[in-house]
Amino acid sequence: MIIRSVLLFSLILMSSHLRAQIVDEMEDETKLYAETKQINQFFRRFNGEEDEKGERYYPKDKQFQNPKLRRKYLDMLFDRSNAGISNDLKVQFVNEVLEKNDPSLLNFHGGNWFAEVQSTFTVNGKEKLVTLFMELEKHRLGTRWIIYKAHADMFDPYYKRDTVAIGKFLHPMSHELDFMNLRKAFLNRDSVAQ
Q1: 159 pLDDT tier (thresholds 50, 70, 90)
Q2: pLDDT tens digits, residue range 37-73?
Q3: Sheet containing 142-151: which strands, arranged edge to edge?
Q4: HEC secondary structure over 144-191
Q5: pLDDT tens digit sequence for 11-24
Q6: What one-character DSSP code corresponds to residue 80?
Q7: pTM above 0.70, yes or no
Q8: What is the rounded (10 degree) CA torsion for 118, 124, 126, 128?
Q9: Rounded to the nearest 5 degrees, what angle is found at the Cα of 35, between the Cα atoms of 120 and 145?
């Protein structure tokens, strides 16, 4: 009976200690809310344009792009598990981003952004890994992602072919004719086949 009481008391004591430990590790639940889940949310937090719960700040709001708020977010945006970034480098980065006379802000619709997408395609019944490189392109009143480059191991044999020996190529000034000769190259199977 005494052993049971000691065990029960120990379990109760340990469970309350564990609960407190979880709160201590998280510091408070604002860090949970502050997790960045989407790129637009990352940009808004980098710029200091939303609070911990994801509520937007607008130019008329006092907290909009507030340097103290930005400093807090910039610290949270670093991957703490990455030991490859020294604390000195983080501090230097944050100080440069928050430079009083010329603070750095991110603008999703006003820059040369790109994305690298790891994808799987089914080719002849087999799954093949393909890396797509995307970039933003202006489209009507907004922007859209376009594929501007792709890489896959299955493409390697096409690059090993010596096209100089065959004498087939696109003239360097083809862009002036909207690559008109590209159509001819695809019609001639010898130009594109292995």
Answers
A1: confident
A2: 677 888 898 999 998 788 999 999 999 999 999 998 8
A3: 114-123, 126-139, 142-151
A4: EEEEEEEECHHHHHHHHCCHHHHCCCCCCCHHHHCCHHHHHHHHCHHH
A5: 333 433 333 333 44
A6: T
A7: no
A8: -20
A9: 40
